[in-house]
Amino acid sequence: MAPLRAVAALALVTAFAAGCTRGSEAGSAATVSDSKAGCPAVLAKAKAAVKAAEDVNAAWDGPTTGPKAATGKTIVYVAQSMTNPGVAGAAEGVKEAAKAIGWKMRIIDGQGTPAGIQAALSQAVAVKPDGIVLSGFDPKSTAQQVAQANAAGIPLIGWHAVDAPGPSTDPKLFSNVTTKVQDVAKISADWVISQSNGRAGVVVFTDASIPFAKGKSDLIEKELAVCSDVKVLTTSNIPIADASSRTPQEVSALLSRFGTKWTNSVAINDLYFADAAPSLRASGKQGNGAPFNIGAGDGDPSAFQRINSKQFQTATVPEPLSEQGWQIVDEFNRAFAGKPASGYVAPAHITTADNSGGKSTWDPKGYREAYRKLWGK
């Protein structure tokens, strides 16, 4: 969920299940014990799903048909905040794709405040572009401006603007580009089950004040529960706005409360793990050891840095930001041609130090060539 990225990091947690012995290296964590987990069938499915999600060479599975490039179009990208890594990353993708298709593109920064976002969208509507991107904010917070754009016949495309991908009727969006929260939640839980070999003690970090975030953590816990030897030790509810101040104390308390039972953590957003590091270090934890942490969404550059340096985050489920930027441009091209939205949703991917290639973003292969071919460019 993009707005979460703009806010400071939160915390980590992980769990340990009775009867398991882990090495200190994250790479050795998969072989935890010779004893069988209590969910062999679930474990086998989780391992298969994780293996598929970690594939960096998967073939492009996006749209293969669509209208040729419209000419002379101008789109405006209204950003929740360009300091938000997800919003900024998607903007770069749109910029690159707009250049490839031959359109003009302008960015207006809402600077992270309700008033700023409303003003930015008002400005965007006023310049009468061919299309407007609503990036990283709830369109209902700009209902007046959205209504004006709708009335003017300006197609709106969201990036993480509403919960679900695809077209939206309320608010009226031609399409919303995002991964499916259900897919992200499931693969995050599958990773914990797989990484722990079906025996884990898990802390789940969420912000219950945000319905989307609470819904994601509920889905994660539901999926973890299908393995009888994976236990959710606790759900840590830390409001995003309070993350930097509350996370260090919360992590210290969790370590005191659960000790080695805490082997894994799942957070609704990567940034939660940034503030956990000091408390983990102070307790003698190693950056590449338990608790083993996965961020269920986003994959901003700081998360990649922690993962690549093996510092208190082992994995993330990143958004393919540049690819989504190209998809936004393709969706506009379909709107301009009077065609329906593509319906494409990027599959959930897992990044670890073993498959990141040392990079700071997840950038799948094949989409640039595929979209250029669609557009005749």
Give your account of this protein's structure.
The chain has helices at residues 2-5, 40-53, 85-101, 114-126, 143-151, 181-195, 211-224, 243-258, 277-282, 301-308, 321-336, 367-375, and strands at residues 74-79, 104-109, 131-135, 156-159, 166-169, 172-177, 200-206, 230-237, 264-267, 292-295, 315-316, 351-352. Helix 3 (85-101) crosses helix 11 (321-336) and helix 11 runs parallel beside helix 12. It contains 12 helices and 12 strands. The chain is globular. The strands form 2 sheets. The protein has a 6-stranded mixed beta sheet, with helices on both faces. By secondary structure, it is of the alpha/beta class. 37% of the residues lie in helices and 15% in strands. The two termini are 32 Å apart. The protein has 2 domains: 2-57 and 182-316, Response regulator (Rossmann fold, 3-Layer(aba) Sandwich), CATH 3.40.50; 74-178 and 321-344, Rossmann fold. Its main location: other. Keywords: Signal. Residues 75-339 form the Periplasmic binding protein domain. Residues 1-17 form the signal peptide. This is Sugar ABC transporter substrate-binding protein.
What count of helical segments does DSSP give? Answer: 12
Strand order of the largest sheet: 2-1-3-4-6-5
- Specify the helix fraction band: 25-40%
* Corresponding CATH superfamily of the largest domain: Response regulator
Characterize the biggest β-sheet.
Answer: 6 strands, mixed
Structural class comes to alpha/beta
Q: Give me the strand/helix succession.
A: HHEHEHEHEEEHEHEHEHEHEHEH
Name the poorly predicted regions.
1-34
Distance between the termini: 32 Å
Level-2 CATH architecture of the largest domain: 3-Layer(aba) Sandwich
Number of domains: 2
Mean pLDDT: 90
Strand content: 15-25%
